[in-house]
Amino acid sequence: MDPNIRLAMDSFFREAEQKAYLMAITLTHDRQEALELVQESMLKLVQKYSHRESNEWGPLFYRILQNTIKDWFRKQKFRQVLLGLMPWQADSAGDKVEASAEHQALLDDELVRVMDALRQLPLRQQQTFLMRAWQEFSTRETAFALSISENSVKTHYARATHRLRQLLGESDG
Fold first, then answer.
1. How far apart, in whole angstroms, are the C-alpha atoms of residue 82 and residue 40?
2. Which of 135, 121, 132, 123 minimizes the C-alpha distance to 168?
3. In this structure, which of 54, 82, 119, 126 has its CB flanked by the most CB atoms within 10 Å?
4. Residue closest to 123 by CA, chosen among 91, 93, 148, 87
5. Confidence of residue 90 (pLDDT cuts 50, 70, 90)
6. d(CA 74, CA 48)
């Protein structure tokens, strides 16, 4: 890889890593899984898109991350089905609750409140809110990253912000 591209990608990842991790942990509720999903997404970006213009990396990276998270959810659902078929294996499922509680203890109270409220939203609303509010992506960039229309982004974002206001006890006006 060209040294200039390598430096630019390193800089991009330094800027995106923390937000991507926070997004992944919010959606997965698992610190280790979130870290692995972010790292996997970074690797995919480098392998497949390092030749693209640097201003395209953000939306591409978050599209990869969201697709990686969707794949993780599919695997989790399959795992849950398998656990349902093998109840004697279900005892190990308690580990994730402990990791989530440990993570929340490190965060301040307000962030915990917001994240708890965010977790009550449907997955697509969570994704849209995180892209628009935390990543500050445009409607177009969010639509591209999530593989949905711009109108869907607007609808999901409006519903997410309305519901979050309700859950956090803020007025809608």
1. 25
2. 121
3. 126
4. 148
5. very low
6. 23
Topology of domain 107-173, CATH: Arc Repressor Mutant, subunit A (1.10.10)
pLDDT tens digit sequence for 119-128: 999 999 999 9
Residue 83: which residues within 8 A CB-CB, separation 6 or more?
A: 89, 90, 93
Higher pLDDT, 90 or 37: 37
Q: Please tell me the pTM assigned to this model.
A: 0.61
Contact 23, 66 (CB under 8 A): no
Q: What is the pLDDT of residue 127?
A: 92
Cβ–Cβ under 8 Å, residues 59 and 146: no
Q: Which CATH architecture has domain 1-90?
A: Orthogonal Bundle (1.10)
Q: Which structure tokens are listed for 165?
A: 């206001």
Who has greater pLDDT, 7 or 101? 7
Q: Give the C-alpha separation, 25 to 130, whole Å.
A: 12
Mean per-residue pLDDT, 84-97: 47
> How far is the C-alpha of 107 from the C-alpha of 120, rounded, in Å?
18
